[in-house]
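Task: sequence design from structure.
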């Protein structure tokens, strides 16, 4: 059974952390409706959606991908690089405990799930402002005994590794290649985002479907021309909080 852990949008979303996009007014009611549409789409694709309650004092808490990663054998509770986000992990750990053994990244290590791209038994991990070398080292120590390989990737010009590259399946990566070092991904097939849509590299593949933001139609055409089935979703208000589609759920088999 495919599970999707999500969290309702915080009423304080407008105070979210921002690094690479300008602050804009966020329509909270619309952001909540867009998030509900995201949850409904996950359900339509076969996921059993668990919706955790909103955290009023944690603006970024809807983005559940960053404080934890879930692998087949265990879940790793992370240490976000943004100090304001570290309290988000507590309730996520409680939600994950029934399904996985828990391990933890500890300070001085920092690591955010948006920097962890899993492709099979390889975990490509972005070295960014939010995820440091010690966090990557701790992750490798935790997961290597379970047969995973941790591969650091230099990232520049965007928030997380998955702001620049995500996996579509079929050995294919969607990417803005000048925002990261592509060398560790040698042998992959590439679909490049269009130049006028630089933030279009974050897509969420579930089964035979790729969920993709409605705001990037030209990159969507490229994916469809490559043979991918794409489901378009409007996340315009969440994008003002520097969100991608992978950010708002933790997907794993129960």
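Answer:
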């Amino acid at each position: 059974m495919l599970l999707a852990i999500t969290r309702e949008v915080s009423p304080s979303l407008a105070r979210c952390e921002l690094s690479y996009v300008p602050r804009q007014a966020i329509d909270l009611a619309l952001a909540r409706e867009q998030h509900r549409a995201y949850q409904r789409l996950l359900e339509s694709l076969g996921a059993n959606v668990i919706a955790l309650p909103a955290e009023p004092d944690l603006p970024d808490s809807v983005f559940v991908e960053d404080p934890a990663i879930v692998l087949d054998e265990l879940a790793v509770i992370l240490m976000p690089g943004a100090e304001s986000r570290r309290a988000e992990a507590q309730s996520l750990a409680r939600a994950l405990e029934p399904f996985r053994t828990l391990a933890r990244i500890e300070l001085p290590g920092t690591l955010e799930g948006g920097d962890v791209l899993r492709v099979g038994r390889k975990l490509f991990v972005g070295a960014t402002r939010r995820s440091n070398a010690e966090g990557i080292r701790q992750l490798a120590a935790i997961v290597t005994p379970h047969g995973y390989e941790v591969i650091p990737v230099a990232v520049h010009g965007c928030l997380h590794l998955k702001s620049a590259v995500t996996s579509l399946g079929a050995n294919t990566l969607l990417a803005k290649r000048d925002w990261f070092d592509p060398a560790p991904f040698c042998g992959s097939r590439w679909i490049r985002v269009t130049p006028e849509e630089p933030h279009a590299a974050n897509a969420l593949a579930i089964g035979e479907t790729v969920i993709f933001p409605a705001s990037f139609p030209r990159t969507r055409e490229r994916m469809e021309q490559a043979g991918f089935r794409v489901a378009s979703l409007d996340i315009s208000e969440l994008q003002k909080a520097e969100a991608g589609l992978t950010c708002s759920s933790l997907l794993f088999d129960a």
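The first strand starts at residue 2 and ends at 7.
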